[in-house]
């Protein structure tokens, strides 16, 4: 059987990330997807746009193109040209579908969804709850539809995995009518990653996902924790938007909501100004000027106090969520680290569980120091609760969900 190709698009306001994968052929499917090409167009609309394209099977090296890319249409056309140059053109009959990462699916979308006009309208209706993300995702979908109107387009939602949260975890304790009228509730994000990592972690433990309880810590530039019982999310740290929860690269995570009106009253900051402060100038970057954990680690090594405090605040919040989700789950089989920081920053993993032997949690120093791309255990042999590092792969998860949906049609 020949493989089907799936193009995965992750469209941001000024960027377009893509990956082309082959699934379902001999040697494909069942997690054996082949990655054919990957790349990114950044600074779309500016003079300094750049396309970086990397073919992964032809042996050709990475190619870069600098120069203005006017809009997302032009960006996707440039991507199509690069793929065509590798013999992977988007007009090839092997291309079965395009899978789009869509950030907010609200209450309506809890599964990967074939996109039609009604679905697009509904994604647009969610713009007020995801003003930074959904408009860019919609642009990506429309662009892809113009390029290949005949092809199935599938939306895979970042919120979907969290739709199983009980009302006790999903609701804020605010007036119910106001909340319902304006759809104010906790949706959670990074769901594609939490879903993928949960499945892979159960595989690593040799357990059935339906009988496995996990705390998944997705620590990237954005960061979120989730409590997963038997393969289903029962709580997660991000809320109405990706701002709630852990300390992140540039986002504050949890603050007293009164900070917002306090800054309005005493500093005259309007909603947009506070939004920008909490989303872009807070978190690690707000605390010490750097949001890259490698740089923070290096500065700590030089005795930099601001970097040390930023790290301590980051870890303190992480440990609070770890403890909270331990209590939410009652029994925990594994704590799983993923994403840029979780997969690479051994000091973060060590500090996150330090002194928690009473909860059955510990990391083995040597195992924690190992680097690699494979899922691995870092807890000591025979530990009551496993601690694991499981590299995430959101593109593969989107491709697999897209493939499953279109092959069932
Ligand atoms: P992500 O959003 O998952 O791509 O993660 C990006 C973040 O991962 C960066 O901002 C860094 O803080 C962190 N990171 C990436 N590589 C390393 C590394 N080798 N050591 C420590 N942190 C890293």
TrEMBL record:
Q: Pathway membership of this protein?
A: Metabolic intermediate biosynthesis; acetyl-CoA biosynthesis; acetyl-CoA from acetate: step 1/2
**Record's PROSITE patterns?**
ACETATE_KINASE_1, ACETATE_KINASE_2
Tell me the keywords, alphabetical order. ATP-binding, Cytoplasm, Kinase, Magnesium, Metal-binding, Nucleotide-binding, Transferase
Which GO BP annotation is one of this protein's? acetate metabolic process
Q: Which GO terms describe its molecular function?
A: acetate kinase activity; ATP binding; magnesium ion binding
Listed InterPro entries? Ac/propionate_kinase (IPR004372), Aliphatic_acid_kin_short-chain (IPR000890), Aliphatic_acid_kinase_CS (IPR023865), ATPase_NBD (IPR043129)
- Is ATP-binding one of the keywords? yes
Reaction it catalyzes: acetate + ATP = acetyl phosphate + ADP
This protein's superkingdom? Bacteria
Q: Which cofactors does this gene product need?
A: Mg(2+); Mn(2+)
Family, similarity comment = Belongs to the acetokinase family.
The protein's name is Acetate kinase
| Originating organism | Streptomyces boncukensis
Q: Identify the coding gene.
A: ackA
